[in-house]
Amino acid sequence: FPTIIYLIIMATNGISKALKLQFGLINHDNRYLTAESFGFKVNASSSSMKKKQLWTLEQDKRDGQVVLLRSHLGRYLSADKDGRVNCAAEAPNSDCRFLIAAQLDGRWALLSEPHQRYFGGSEDFLSCFAQAIGEAELWAIHLALHPQANLLSVARKRYARLSATAGEITMDSDIPWGVDSLITLVYTDGKYCLKTCDNRFLSSEGILLKEYEPHASFTLELRLGKLAFKNIKGMYLAPVGPAGTLKSGRCTKPGKHELFDLEESHPQVVIQAANKRYVSIRQGVNISANQDMETDLETFQMEIDKETRKCMFKTNEGSYWTLVSHGGIQSTATDIEANAMFHIEWLGRAVALKASNRKYISTKGNGQLAAVGDTVGDSELFQLKLINRPILILRGENGFVCHHRSSNTLDVNRTAYDIFSLLFSDGAYHIKSKLIEQDQSDSVFCLKAIYHLASPAGGDGKFWYVSSSDLVCSDGDEPEDFTLQLQEHGRLAIRGNNGLYLHGDNDGTLKCDAACVDSASLWEY
């Protein structure tokens, strides 16, 4: 009988909370399990993963081995004694209880706990009446989270980072700091690749490859709410040796050393003041703009509060900026508090920062920062440079941003994504893309596209620009300025040279004609 596993979505042992693991379930026909609004019916007819295809796994409160599948409507999948399935239950009942039978290839079979029958089928003909597991009862997992994140080893409580000199990924970072800590998950044909910030693929041997090869893909397994990555030989990724080099070990069953968490990768910035020097903590607790080099001491993590949209600036030592007496700004806060929250005003290529005393932060003659300004002048202006998104993946409310298959425009409603290069330019950004040949199916990311995307900043890359009809096009020979506004937790707005914002129109095309920021003009990044 297949091994029964159970999952718990729980907080991580790391710096941040683990990401909520939403996913799609793909059947043997390469179609996604879909929850329809009308009649709360379910089917497996969609070739792409959008809102209706998202599912969240919950643990049953009475029995840790039992799981519940909740749809985007907040209703629960259920199966009755005759094998009939729907997704109408507003609260869990006995028919909503399932066990997960994990297969060697990473796919799941869903067993009805009260009726001991397996769930499966095709298109509109889904049932939970099979007594044994066949192809029709197997479901592949496609994670729905944004693919760029920080990777935490559960056993070592250390984060992954690119060791460029050694040409490997090591699990030896106390905090996920800087661009080297950015990991991108690439989904292809039911498996996942791990890409570093310099667009190399991790192989099962721990070697970083410039181009995709089959031994750089892994089957994703979920164990106790954690992730495990299994290679084509059935061995699991784990940190090895003193530096924690990430490679496949000898284990064929994942233990604690083979488990990982994905954590949100917060934006990290360097800040240049009006005196053209970088804000730093090098001199001690007083925040001052007095440095000419960008190092970890001049890098700050922006953590945006979901409710107030105010920002906290975190240092690489784990402390936060805070307002102190006489308007001074120091890096002495250890907890989230009112004095550690700052309102950001987005002013084109620059920003102004307002402290809790309702004063703007100014750069004094000696470089020290103090919240003493009543209005915004030159001394109150700063430039933010986003440093941990050299490669950019954008997801809107209807899907990922991707090249249109037959034109120079961009789609905003795709399951697959394209990777773009983000280049800083004096407070603005240039967005560079590759014109690539993609597979015609959204649910399978073409391997040919993957290797072309391995160097998005290559010499033949083209730039984004806004056409005379406000369409965002991706084949420009010359760069055009866009400004980024980190408006919300995990989401940004992009403003064009015309003073308007990028948004997805009703036809699923990216345009630059929104006068204000709303849900259609905010992008996960």
UniProtKB/TrEMBL annotation:
Major location (coarse): cytoplasm
Single GO term (MF): actin filament binding
UniProt record, GO biological process: actin filament bundle assembly; cell migration; establishment or maintenance of cell polarity
SUPFAM superfamilies, per database record: Actin-crosslinking proteins
Top-rank taxon, per record: Eukaryota
Record's GO cellular component terms: actin cytoskeleton; cytoplasm
Statement: the UniProt record of this protein carries the keyword Chaperone: no
Domain Fascin-like intervals: 30-140, 150-262, 274-384, 460-525
Keyword Kinase: no
InterPro entries recorded: Actin-crosslinking, Fascin, Fascin-like_dom, Fascin_metazoans
Keywords of this entry: Actin-binding, Cytoplasm, Cytoskeleton
Pfam (any one): Fascin
Protein's cellular compartments: Cytoplasm, Cytoskeleton
Annotated family: Belongs to the fascin family.
Name of the featured protein: Fascin-like domain-containing protein
Organism name: Electrophorus voltai
